[in-house]
Amino acid sequence: MHAKPPRHVLVATDLSGHAEQAVVRAAALAAQHGAALTAVHVTDPDLDPALLSHAGDRLREQLDRCAAGVGTQVVVRSGNVAAGLLDEAGERDADLLVVAAHGGHRRDGGTLGGTPQNLVRASDIPVLVVRTPPEVPYGRVLLAVDASGSSFAAAGTGIALTPDAEHLLAHATTVPGEHLLLMRGMGEPELEQLRGAATERTRAEIERAAAGLVPPPERILVTPGRAEDAVPELADRYGAGLVVVGAGTRHHRLGRALLGSVARHVTQEAVCDVLVVPEAAEGP
């Protein structure tokens, strides 16, 4: 299972300081992989056309600060932000979309901004949500998987994006009907035994699947619990700079089924960057 690194990186920016973190990260990844880089700023559709040129000048100034030495195409368009970014990504055949977790109108600390939420839900290509200052390359990456082949393909995409990082594969397992067992009076010691047995059975399956990744992860973490809770906690415990997670099943653009619960929760709760890989974009 050998995925390819990106060939064309598209970074979204609202010209704010938060967005600069995404521009720096996108420029570093484009330089690392020899990929093309396009920076896109989408303005309000009611903006005076005379100000579009000014927006372009500000975008170039931001790129001079954040992407010096990297050849970058500059695009300013007006309209709905998420739709405009997805259109631009499709027209340019981009294979990685980079966006800051919060823009210039950030309202509260933990909640993901509206535009990145929409992009993660609707994008047909991987979306990298940048939360942390991109001062160094990713040193440790947590690859969150379930038992599906698509989640391991997403892990392969993460490995291809960060070939020099240490990769930890993480899987959380639960006891079927655990809540009902508790309601029927099963004690915590008995439940812990069931959790341990389920974890060990699952570990062998996960290790077999992980052997197909190129290169295989340095460490495999199988832990009891819900993935929604375990993945952000493991990322924090092991100091991961990036979490990679599959997006789940998709439908039509901007009207798709709900984002998978694990991907949705991780993008909201993780304190590090998150790469969300849609099923259509996974694999080679």
Features:
Rossmann fold; elongated; 10 strands; alpha/beta; 284 residues
Report what the structure shows.
It is a single chain. By secondary structure, the protein is α/β, with parallel strands linked by helices. It folds into 2 domains: about 1-135, Rossmann fold, CATH 3.40.50.620; about 135-284, 3-Layer(aba) Sandwich (Rossmann fold). The chain is about 40% helix and about 20% strand. The chain has 9 helices and 10 strands. Strands 3-2-1-4-5-10-9-6-7-8 form a 10-stranded mixed beta sheet, sandwiched between helices. Strand 4, helix 4 (about 115-120) and strand 5 (about 125-130) form a beta-alpha-beta unit. Helix 3 crosses helix 4 and helix 8 runs parallel beside helix 9 (about 260-270). The chain is elongated.
Q: Can you summarize this structure?
A:
By secondary structure, this protein is of the alpha/beta class. The chain contains nine helices and ten strands.
Count up the helices.
9
Strands of the widest sheet, in order across it, are: 3-2-1-4-5-10-9-6-7-8
Strand content: 15-25%
Radius of gyration: 20 Å
Low-confidence runs of at least 5 consecutive residues:
106-110, 251-258
Q: Helices and strands, in N-to-C order? A: EHEHEHEHEEHEHHEHEHE
> What is the CATH class of the largest domain?
Alpha Beta
Overall mean pLDDT stands at: 85
Task: Specify the biggest β-sheet.
Answer: 10 strands, mixed
